[in-house]
Amino acid sequence: MVGAFQGSGVVVTGAGGGIGAALARRFAAEGARVVVNDLDAERAKHVAEEIGGIALPGDASAVVDDARDALGGAVDVYCANAGVAFGGGDADAPLDETGWATSWEVNVMAHVRAAHALLPAWLERGNGRFVSTVSAAGLLTMIGAAPYAVTKHGALAFAEWLSLTYRHRGVKVHAICPQGVRTDMLAATGSAGDLVLQPTAIEPEAVADALLKGIEEDRFLILPHPEVAEYYQARAGDPDRWLSGMNRIQRQWEESR
């Protein structure tokens, strides 16, 4: 797909490293003009300089207007990639900014706010592309990470709603749902991540490759780990059996701690 996004205006949030940086590099390689957003200004600047993009540090929830100005008036592709995961997040995780509140704000509401800002122009011109970095946790779940798992389900639900509501009006939506990816976030998952995610972890570049292939094939659901489709079907087909299997993993994790 070299050159498929030639001249397109692309925004990637959380692009200072990991999956976001890989997406920014890949879109730049396709000829896009890329806005690199990250809370860490230095990391955003570093990636932007590497790819010839535009660094726009700050809160992902409020980046659309500035990004539109930086791109000369139009955002063609918006990658809602910024996310948070707090270690040790059981159901009793803090309700404040150190747990549930920030998880909802970043993993769900930042997507909602971005879509609210983007949709009027996209619907007027009849095209636009919204990419949501969700996680296999949004299709399945994740042990030891209640705020993350629950809010990623919310991110997936919002992406599905966007797609079913606006696809006939030219808005394309893609939900990326990888399992383990070798990033700082994976390293922060601790023993739960070591048990569930590390054995099949992939590089961020593989996620970017999967997205571009999914875009080419016009697919909503992007699964860099193909086996996730089987797990998702098993979960839907027999929820009690699936929950029992996940509970065995939970007990295995508890016994290993």
UniProtKB/TrEMBL annotation:
Keywords: Oxidoreductase
Keyword Repeat attributed: no
Record family assignment: Belongs to the short-chain dehydrogenases/reductases (SDR) family.
This protein's name: Oxidoreductase
